[in-house]
């Protein structure tokens, strides 16, 4: 498929895109407004720089880079776009009115053209893998310089690009610079036709995370409120439907040995909160909902983390963590936050979106890849019983995070090169 056929297909799918928004709006209030932005109909001001991230994870990684650019270029006007309400909320929370913010339009030619005409950026920084053929093509034709920051490319994604090489290669070759997270990702970009001099290995911005002191204080206070120091608390973070049942079965297994154990289950998406609550109750486990400020008593078995922006705090209050999206065909989520807090971490086999990070943590002994819930239960129980092994995993995670810091400085320098050019 080439870009012309791709564009025709998107026009044909336009009614389905409207239905998609309507369907998401039924489940998630965040999708009920601002539809005009999705089709390039918002009234926007011109900006010098456009930065695009996808959802919460990419936005959190982008915010330190955005703030560094703002400090270096205080007169520069910046537009930040996302595609999800959670990402949008993070932009507003962290950057407020210091940037112009909206959703990135669907990659329909007329929508993208209208959007770029209004914003008229001189440079675009795209986070991670959020590449859209029409956006890149039209920006490139307008002479806009484009950087792919914090770029990751799993083997699975590279294979998919290769299968659509007539569409993907012109898009990738239009990029002016790529800040790759790893040597493997850099080599995959080059294999797809990107000039080697455009690709630089900078590491992942996610390693440059800073745990705010107030988060640690809050986490400690919650821990003391919920359980004593000898209790057993674990987090199932960013879990999806298809993983809920496995997590609850794991927790029932733990309760046989440790009746005081507490599971903090945090669904990835807000529209899954109620379904998760129903499934917990149906399992026969006692439930407290964070959104309703339910009391977490000594008899509470599951705390549902159905609030926004508290996952890091929950990790800080726990002893061990499973990171979701990995027991299903999803690709996984970031395991660095629990590792940076000294928690032994577990992921399932489907972690290709964080393959390099997972590999580093696994090789150091900070993380273990499990195949199913039964194996997760066994590993959690073993760490709870074996304090030296637990401590070794905890310290290994801290070392890996500390050893790989520095990506922000390198990617900021590349961004400056893009802007100054």
From TrEMBL:
Gene Ontology MF terms in the entry: Kdo transferase activity
Pfam families, per the entry: Glycos_transf_N
Keyword Membrane among record annotations: yes
Organism of derivation: Shewanella nanhaiensis
3-deoxy-D-manno-octulosonic-acid transferase N-terminal domain span: 34-208
Protein name in UniProt: 3-deoxy-D-manno-octulosonic acid transferase
EC id: 2.4.99.12
Gene3D superfamilies: 3-Deoxy-D-manno-octulosonic-acid transferase, N-terminal domain (3.40.50.11720), Glycogen Phosphorylase B (3.40.50.2000)
Localization (cell): Cell membrane
Catalytic activity: lipid IVA (E. coli) + CMP-3-deoxy-beta-D-manno-octulosonate = alpha-Kdo-(2->6)-lipid IVA (E. coli) + CMP + H(+)
UniProt xrefs under InterPro entries: Glycos_transf_N, Glycos_transf_N_sf, Kdotransferase
Entry annotated with the keyword Glycosyltransferase: yes
PANTHER family cross-referenced by the UniProt entry: 3-DEOXY-D-MANNO-OCTULOSONIC ACID TRANSFERASE, MITOCHONDRIAL-RELATED, 3-DEOXY-MANNO-OCTULOSONATE CYTIDYLYLTRANSFERASE
Homology family: Belongs to the glycosyltransferase group 1 family.
Coiled-coil annotated spans: none
Pathway recorded for this protein: Bacterial outer membrane biogenesis; LPS core biosynthesis
Function of the protein: Involved in lipopolysaccharide (LPS) biosynthesis. Catalyzes the transfer of 3-deoxy-D-manno-octulosonate (Kdo) residue(s) from CMP-Kdo to lipid IV(A), the tetraacyldisaccharide-1,4'-bisphosphate precursor of lipid A.
């Amino acid at each position: 498929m080439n870009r012309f056929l791709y564009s025709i297909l998107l026009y044909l799918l336009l009614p389905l895109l409207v239905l998609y928004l309507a369907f998401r709006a039924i489940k998630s209030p965040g999708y009920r407004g601002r539809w005009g932005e999705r089709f390039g109909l918002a009234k926007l001001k011109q900006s010098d720089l456009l930065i695009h991230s996808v959802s919460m994870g990419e936005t959190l990684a982008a915010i330190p880079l955005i703030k560094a650019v703002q400090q270096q270029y205080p007169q520069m006007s910046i537009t930040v776009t996302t595609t999800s309400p959670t990402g949008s909320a993070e932009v507003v929370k962290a950057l407020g009115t210091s940037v112009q913010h909206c959703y990135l339009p669907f990659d329909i030619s007329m929508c993208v053209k209208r959007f770029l005409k209004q914003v008229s950026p001189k440079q675009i920084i795209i986070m991670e893998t959020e590449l859209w053929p029409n956006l890149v093509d039209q920006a490139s034709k307008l002479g806009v310089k484009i950087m792919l920051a914090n770029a990751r490319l799993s083997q699975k994604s590279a294979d998919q690009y290769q299968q659509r090489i007539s569409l993907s290669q012109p898009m990738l070759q239009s990029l002016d610079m790529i800040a790759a997270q790893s040597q493997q990702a850099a080599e995959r970009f080059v294999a797809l036709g990107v000039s080697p001099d455009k690709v630089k290995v900078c590491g992942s911005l996610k390693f440059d995370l800073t745990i705010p002191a107030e988060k640690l204080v809050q986490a400690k206070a919650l821990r003391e409120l919920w359980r004593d120091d000898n209790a057993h608390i674990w987090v199932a973070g960013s879990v999806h439907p298809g993983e809920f049942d496995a997590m609850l079965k794991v927790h029932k297994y733990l309760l046989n040995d440790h009746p005081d154990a507490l599971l903090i289950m945090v669904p990835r998406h807000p529209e899954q909160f109620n379904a998760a609550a129903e499934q917990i109750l149906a399992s026969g486990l006692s439930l407290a909902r964070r959104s309703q400020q339910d009391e977490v008593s000594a008899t509470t078995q599951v705390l549902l983390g159905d609030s926004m922006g508290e996952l890091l705090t929950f990790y800080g209050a726990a002893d061990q963590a499973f990171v979701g999206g990995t027991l299903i065909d999803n690709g996984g989520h970031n395991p660095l936050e629990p590792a940076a807090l000294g928690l032994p971490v577990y992921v399932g086999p489907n972690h290709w979106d964080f393959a390099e990070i997972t590999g580093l943590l696994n090789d150091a002994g900070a993380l273990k890849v499990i195949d199913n819930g039964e194996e997760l239960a066994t590993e959690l129980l073993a760490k709870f019983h074996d304090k030296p092994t637990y401590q070794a995993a905890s310290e290994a995670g801290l070392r890996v995070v500390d050893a790989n810091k520095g990506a922000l400085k390198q990617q900021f320098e590349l961004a400056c090169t893009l802007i100054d050019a």
